[in-house]
Amino acid sequence: MIMMNNNLRVFVEAAERSSFTRAAEALHVTQPAVSRAVRALEDELKVKLFFRDKRTGLALTDVGEKVLALARQMADTENRIYQAAFRENNFLGGRVRVASMPVLTSSILSKALRRFRDRHPYVSVELVEGSASEIRRAVEDHRVDFGFTLSPFGGLDSRAVFTDRMLAVGSEEFDDPEPVDVRARGFVVCKAGYETMVDALGASWEGAGDCLVVQQAETVIGLVREGNGVGVISELVLNATPNRLCRHAIEPAIELEAGIVANDLDDLTPVAIALERTVLEACEEYCEDGGGQRSGHTRSEASRR
Question: Given 29, 72, 162, 277, which is the most exposed site by the fewest CB atoms within 10 A?
């Protein structure tokens, strides 16, 4: 490799996973090998990069944080160098890193990745999954090239591609044909859905404390199917999860957008641009199949300033 030596690569893995053991598993080496590599880097730099906290486990020192940030920049530069060399030979190669919410991975990104690998067999793809907040942090920390997530997008540069909406679901038909008012009663919601509702309803949401909040959307569907109340869940999740639940509009309406986020969409690598275009193709097909409404805008306010 041109820039990153092995010890520095091992350090980055350990830092990002906050564990020598998990870093060893990811690198397919032993835990002592990871310890030796980090110790060798510390000896070379004459600084301490980690300290152990009994409560939180492995943590970076102040200088360790600085070294990690610089190492990520080196890894990105090295990747761009290799991509430039590949491009000179008239094909795309190198590495692209993308973060995605699991529901977006299963419903859209999985199709885009298969198509992308067929088109660009010399590109390696690294996938990180997490919640919307975890994806934002991965992008902000430059651990991925871009994220595929649901709003809010925070202060990141964003390209919204389609609109999703929250729906009420039950095991039986609702008696009242009017939209279900979600402000004054408790519902079964997953963590991500709860965060979305808090963000949309704010102080007006009187029933926030009465909600049954679970980790996974699939748990919401299971609880509602067995008659444990009314759930509130996104239409995207319902379309991606087999179920026979009755759907109903909610009041006030809560919409969220699916989109691509990055620190700077105009500064993506050629490989990342190619993957983004493939994801956008898959999103178009999802909308054409009736899975969502195309977004009314394509770039965030921050990106136009």
Answer: 277
